[in-house]
Amino acid sequence: MIWSGFALTALIALFAQNALTQTGSAKGSDFLRFACSQLVIERTDPLVNPGVIPSSHMHQVVGGSSFNATMDPAVIDPSTTSSCTSCKMSEDFSNYWTASIFFQSPENGTFIRVPQMANGRLNGSLMEQQGGLTVYYMHAFSGTNKNVTVFPRGFRMLAGDPTLRTKQSGPVTICHRCLAKNERTSGGSGAPCSSTDYASFPPKPCPGGIRATVIFPSCWDGKNLDSPDHRTHVTYQPGSALAGDKCPSTHPVRIPQVMYEIMYDTSGFADPKYYTNGKQPLVYSFGDPLGYGAHGDYLFGWKDGALQRAMDALGTNCFSETCPVLKLQSWENTVACTKAQQAKENTGTDTCMYALSVL
Predict the structure, then answer these.
(1) Which helix (H) or strand (E) holds 59?
(2) Where is the signal peptide (predicted)?
């Protein structure tokens, strides 16, 4: 899978602009970007396995503290039922979650969870991130119309397909970047999901870690807050993973494009002996030893009007974590926002784990 020429060029331009923004040389950009610390690691999934404890596989979750196994939108509004958020934006009580990665020992077959790490020195606060992930909300990258409609209460969606075990054609929406040892702090450079990234797990040691990217759809049908597969009520712009200023007639409402970056610390699992004869030792918690099934889950929970104000202000004096229409909380409060597991389980990274759906 490769990006279309336009999509890759657009995203390279986006990140080039972002680099200028970080040094104060640019006045704005087309995205918010902020870090979220770890809320909980456990086997619950209110999107795919609502009410099931434990769910089919382990997830790493960030965001509002009201996250639980059900999250019935008729009962729970994260923006009012959460007592805290593990995201830097203090008005964002959304929940964002992805599958954990395990190292399977080629020697004895046991599993150890791969720890997460901070997302590089892109700006000061991201370096302080305690695991978790980095969230982007992005505008259109083509056309002149930058207006988007923010998600309504109860909105949720899933990007990726956990059943995939082969490379797919078309624009890349999820990828893995293999970082060299000297890229650990920076998190790598250049556009994500470029031709040098992998849809699967990288087939080589990654001593600087793996940066996984999940890009969500940017068009909504305007009617359904969810769908049976959690994907068909939204879609990507035709022919591109990146949002443009047009959407298909079946999904006419342009929404902010959400993107995650998740950093996995594979430095302890980078021995070349683990990568021989076309094999590699990593496996996603849902039993995928190839990596093609990587996915991300999203549940909207911003305070009334906050995200819309930010999206309307993008490109002026609002960019990345510098956005006067939003409120930032301290890193002490961000990291302090955690919650107890509902599915009680040892999730340490120094012990063998059994939280795989295939076991």
Answers:
(1) strand 59-63
(2) 1-21
